Amino acid sequence: MVHVLCFMGDRMASEAQRLEEIRRAIARHNADWRAGANRLTRLSAEARRRRLGFVPGPHDPSLAEREAVALRNQQSPTTDSPDSRAALGVPTAYDLRNVDGQNYITPVRDQGDCGSCVAFGTLAAAEGTYRVALKNPNLEIDYSEAHLFHCHARREGRTCGNGWWVDRALEAVKNSGVVDERCCPYTAGAQNCPALCDSSPSRLTRIENWRRYVTAASMKLWLCSEGPLIACLTVYEDFFAYTTGAYRHVWGEEVGGHCVCVVGYDDEGGYWICKNSWGEDWGERGFFRVRYGAVGIDAEMWTVEGIRSPFAVRDAAFVSQSLPTAMVPGQGYDVAVTLRNTGIQTWTRGSNYRLGSQNPQDNMVWGLGRVDVPHRVPTWGEATFAFRVTAPAQLPAHHQWRMVQDGVEWFGGTTPDVLVEASGVSVRHGATLRVRHAMTWANLHSHPYVYGHPGSSGQQQVTCYDGADDNDLWIVRGPDGTPSDHRVGQQVSHGDLIRLEHMATRRNLHSHGGVPSPVTGQQEVTCFGEGGQGDGNDTWRVEIEGGGTWQAGRRIRLIHVATGHALHSHRGHAHPDWTMGQQEVTCFAGRDANDLWFASDFRARDALFVAQSVPTTMVRGQSYDVTVTMCNVGTETWTAADSHRLGSQSPQDNQTWGPARVELPRTVAPGEHVTFAFRVTAPAAAGVSHFQWRMLREGAEWFGALSARTPIRVYTTTEDATVPDATGLARNAAGNLIRDAELVPRFTGAQGARVEVGSQEPGAGTKVRRGGTVTLRMVHTD
């Protein structure tokens, strides 16, 4: 039986005296551990007591009863005999800190001046279990003890002063989950539930189940196959002075209960290996060993099962990038891409983490396909990959990257796809392009959803979108009130007034004073109008940094002419409904870097229809001279040698008019107009045929806008038609009779099922021009 010396208390005995008495007791009881001064031995008795926090539940055995159970189990030959362990395949020693040289236990924490040990022991076991389950000792896992204790335990009335119970902590993790440490950092001391990070609902880790074990053999089997366990012990005064060895109580009175994480055992030494939560400067660098059956350590232990984590092992998020958006082929350029490690494994060179080229994957367009990670990048850490590229001979070209662990997998999202243009490419009136936000690289975007926030206009939403789709495409038009062919092909210069027409919905980029934006309350930006026609609030002034013409790589501001506000966006401002979770776009009265934009994704091949000349009536089989004028608003020069041609449409490749292709009459540079003059032959069949054309590059693609779809009425002869007699006929029969005469019926008068032609104008037998109108007045037959 342990002899307990009289303890006079902190106020009557110095630290040195206590340590000397503990050392004498260790020697007297031939105990195999050492005591020494440390940060905890210098605290007052009350402060040391606050480093504990395990309290047996109201229906659980007391600390003394737990000690008796543990001692009885240790002395029983049936609970942990060599034969029972051998039958289960349990080794005689195991340490999760060194499994074939790998450490599956997360770093030691410090609970500080708070009785929160249950939370620390529980989450230490969960972290180690997840590493073991994934067979990955390098996972950066750190669950939030603050969330578990200051939030979940607090709701049950538990505080730093009265501790908690293990089973309740496990139930909280199972049913409610805990966030990661970064989302809710731990600070010691009594407090209410701290504020969680904005993304906390998507960062909750839960367990599927938990178990309680009461035999040493089952505890060891779990530990060497599934992971660490949670255990509780009685803390006596001598335990605070522990420095090394296999602890057992030899001196001092009971202070309270404490919860720890069991990470190993050794049958030859007769001890458990435990991870404490008093910092790395206590014990064996934060760990301690304790004798089997001592201080109630193995009266019972708990396990966690089935970690359900929201985090991928490997994941990455784009932060920023810096690169020219216009380059000279063959020249070198410095590029920087910054990514955040949002997975739970550290990126290192030794583990083959690299930045890899995309679009297409593993391409060597820029002179290299991999960039080594520059340094060790832990979870939530950032890495800036700084490297030099050589512009390819053929521009434009896609510049995009993604993280890869070579030999394992590609992971995380791609960086924004940047279509790098050749230097000198100009933005032209009539061109279709993307407009990108210079700070976030997101695309100016709209979609057929309307605002509905308080005070909104109810018009079509405009956002910034991290991805890329057809809802990012805009056509550069002249200011409000100008025709669609205003200055087509001409360069856009500093100070020019323009509209941006959303290609998918044919509505114009628009703003209006006095209407708040959905998130920040700045001036709302919408898409407005129909078919490209809106009002004066659609007009914007182009302000180019440094003046001159708007070219690839040059940053601009778009100033709303009616209000003087600048088109603006900002990271981190979004709404699930009123911006569809995308980045808010506003108009801003001030000026800052969030007002800057640049043109992107110029179309190499693009054309805008300008005009066409074609008769609207023809006689079958006869030939007619027609013209179609197109403007080259792309970046590629049209040449006959490269098979740029005009091709028939409605339907595509038809030979209704004779030729299905018209050769290019000359070379057409970007910004130039070209008129195709050619001869067509009216089709043999009378009726209506449609005349429409579009540009193409044979063997590559059709591109650009179609010409106007013009209906051409084809007649059998040029002679006047004779009006037939339709009186007395029903509506359908009368209409067919008039059409067969190559005339157009127009119905007036009575409507309904029982009607007939009462009279007609002009009358039967009259000669009229083919295609003329015959008015049929309908009357009821009753």
Automatic annotation (TrEMBL):
KW Disulfide bond (keyword) present: yes
Domain MIR: 424-479, 489-545, 547-602
Gene3D superfamilies: 2.80.10.50, 3.30.10.20, Cysteine proteinases (3.90.70.10), Immunoglobulins (2.60.40.10)
UniProt cross-references to SUPFAM superfamilies, sorted A to Z: Cysteine proteinases, MIR domain
A Pfam family per the record: PASTA
Alphabetized GO MF terms: cysteine-type peptidase activity
InterPro entries for the chain: Ig-like_fold, MIR_dom_sf, MIR_motif, Papain-like_cys_pep_sf, PASTA_dom, Pept_asp_AS, Pept_his_AS, Peptidase_C1A_C
PROSITE patterns xrefs: MIR (PS50919), THIOL_PROTEASE_ASN (PS00640), THIOL_PROTEASE_HIS (PS00639)
Record carries keyword Disulfide bond: yes
GO biological process, one term: carbohydrate metabolic process
Keywords, sorted A to Z: Disulfide bond, Repeat, Signal
Protein name stated in the entry: MIR domain-containing protein
